[in-house]
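2024-03-11 09:14:02 DEBUG pipeline.ingest accepted 1 chain
2024-03-11 09:14:02 DEBUG pipeline.ingest length=137
2024-03-11 09:14:03 DEBUG pipeline.predict start
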Amino acid sequence: MADPATTRQLIARYYEAFNARDISGMLDCLHEDVAHDVNEGERQIGKEAFKQFLIHMNRCYRENLDAIEIMTNESGLRAAAEFVVHGAYLATDEGLPEANGQTYVLPAGSFFEIDDGLISRVTLYYNLKDWIAQVSG
């Protein structure tokens, strides 16, 4: 059992670090064996894999989140967040359209599991077809 208010604070801290492009701050919120379910991708395990993902994302995209709403269950062991991504596509990502600084606005959401006061799972969802249409148009 975890305190729902503490869980909300943890998720808020995670997103504050995201918006600051603070990889270390994000990693500080994660369990060593964090499971990361990449949108329409494979599950990655561990902080090092998460760090490499963030480095890649920061190279290809510049994103800022707003309208962040964080929800937790009564036990504080699960949480969800809904938000809007405001981004710029900076460098071409493998298998995706060519990047030339296109901007996009995309609703998204994440689900979390909490273990020992840290995030042990992050599952991210957004509409990839919508994103492709925005950067291809």
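2024-03-11 09:14:41 DEBUG pipeline.report The longest helix spans residues 4-19.
2024-03-11 09:14:41 DEBUG pipeline.predict end
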